[in-house]
Amino acid sequence: MGPLYKFGWFDFSYSLQLAGLIGFMFGFVLERAGFGNPRKLTAIFYLRDFAVLKVMFTAIIVCMLGLLYFSLFGWIDLGRVYLLPTFIWPQIVGGLVLGIGFVMGGYCPTTSVVATVSGKLDGLVFIIGMMIGSVFFAEVFPMLKGFYTSGDMGAIRLTDVFNINSGIIAFLVCIVAVGAYWFVEKVEQKFGDKDMLPKGSPKVKRTAAGLLILLGLILAVVNPDRIIAKPATSEIQTEEGVEAVQKPAATSEKPDSTGFKIVDDEGC
Amino acid sequence: MKERYSNPYVIGVILGLVLLFSFYTMGRGLGSSASFARIATAGVNLVAPEHAKANAYLSNYLRRGKSPLVDWLVFLTMGAALGGLFSAFISNRIKGEVARGPFIGVSIRLWLALGGGILSGFAARMARGCTSGQALTGAAELAFGSWVFMLCIFAGAYATAYFFRKEWL
Fold first, then answer.
1. What is residue A21's three-state secondary structure?
2. Which of A58, A61, A125, B116 maximizes the CB count within 10 A of its CB?
3. CB B79, CB A20: distance < 8 Å
4. CB–CB contact B98 A122 (8 Å)
């Protein structure tokens, strides 16, 4: 049962090798999609090529469905998957600023790595900028600390906010995705370069869209939250308990004077 | 610049499976921006160790007395660099250049890349993650803040895209 690492299938040093492998696949697919090219990436903001949205949304859906089906079959314990906590105000401001940085610099953090290794000097300059930005954040952190920890809502999911079970949320996300794909392809046809846009057979697209909605519908009907032993709320709260059992070293450290710490699992 | 890339839907499915694999094996998703913060921390620690340790934020990367670089995300990012390199190599896309639109000079493009990088590095620390670690990973787990964050990325970019149109179009 997954996550394998949390069940002690392998140790930290092996997890680093696994990180290298996962990273390799990550970088590989980003480059294949053309995400080492800032003109391809930013084309979405000029309505010409929505590859960024298609890749991101599809990846999110595939993984979301995978997690829910895996938990349904008892292959993964979602209570042991690190759930990103919500600090709504810094996330809103951070998102807006990151968006400006994206269209100004042409990259987001991971794609700048792919650009750099394919020889783009602007990618390397972007990376240097990110390091300067990170250190700058750290230098002004004492002033920002109040804001950084504001809007703390805990590790909540869409299911908690809307009070709908995750099967129905998944179904809605699938429907929104199919609608979004249809819409952005219309927009692309109008503004984009038709020679550059991917050609796909309408039949395959219809079949895939149907399959997506069917998979979502099954989840909405079977309601994974009900079948999973733990209800959605306790799923979230267990994280700290699990960490304490799994990694005593991490929790035995005394909190620093600022009363804030970066958890081991912190994303990105 | 007329380059054909893989179908974005196919790439999306594969990326989703990679992300699922990461969740299944490690119980966590992808990410990269923190690795740059860690590399920068290692740099500051090398030049001014006292300063790094005294800083409330950087000192978090220096806990436990081990190098800030011995970290899951740093290894993931190194892997991503190799994977990107391999993909670019097999498609003959490795080319030294400054990628930009036809109507903008090299130096201004590099200054904008630096500025965009600084904003992104700052914003990713503020939001506790970037497009992959926060938006992609969190959205797949249906984390509320991650969905809001992702919508805000697009809002911020669409709102300001007009001012940078000469850089790209």
1. helix
2. B116
3. yes
4. yes
- The separation between the first and the last C-alpha atoms of chain B, rounded to the nearest angstrom, is 12
Interface touch B155/A75, C-beta < 8 Å: no
Query: Which chain A positions have a beta carbon within 8 Å of B70's beta carbon?
Result: 16
pLDDT at A6: 87
Split at pLDDT 50, 70, 90, the class of A255 is very low
* A152: β partners: A87
Structural tokens at position B55: 């800083």
CB of A54 closer than 8 Å to CB of A181: yes
- Chain B interface mutation, best of A22, A24, A100, A268, highest count of B Cβ atoms under 10 Å: A268
What ipTM was estimated for this complex? 0.96
In the numeric block, which tokens belong to residue A143? 């002033």
Please give the model's pTM, rounded to 2 decimal places.
0.89
Per the CB < 8 A criterion, the answer to whether A2 and A70 are in contact is yes
Q: What gap in Å lies between CA B82 and CA B85, rounded to an integer?
A: 5
B135 touches chain A (CB under 8 A): yes
Q: Which whole-number Å values give the CA distances from A50 to A5, A33, A43, A46, A56, in the listed order?
A: 36, 12, 7, 9, 10
Task: Tell me the C-alpha distance between A242 and A256, whole Å.
Answer: 22
Query: What residues does each domain of chain A span?
Result: 1-32+231-259, 36-71+158-228
DSSP state string for chain B: -------HHHHHHHHHHHHHHHHHHHSS----HHHHHHHHHHHHHHH-HHHHHHSTTGGGGGGGGS-TTSSHHHHHHHHHHHHHHHHHHHTT----B----TTS-HHHHHHHHHHHHHHHHHHHHHTTS-IIIIIIHHHHTTBHHHHHHHHHHHHHHHHHGGGGHHHH-
Instruction: Compute the mean pLDDT over every residue in chain B, rounded to the nearest whole number.
Output: 93
The alpha-carbon gap from B39 to the nearest alpha carbon of chain A, in Å, equals 8
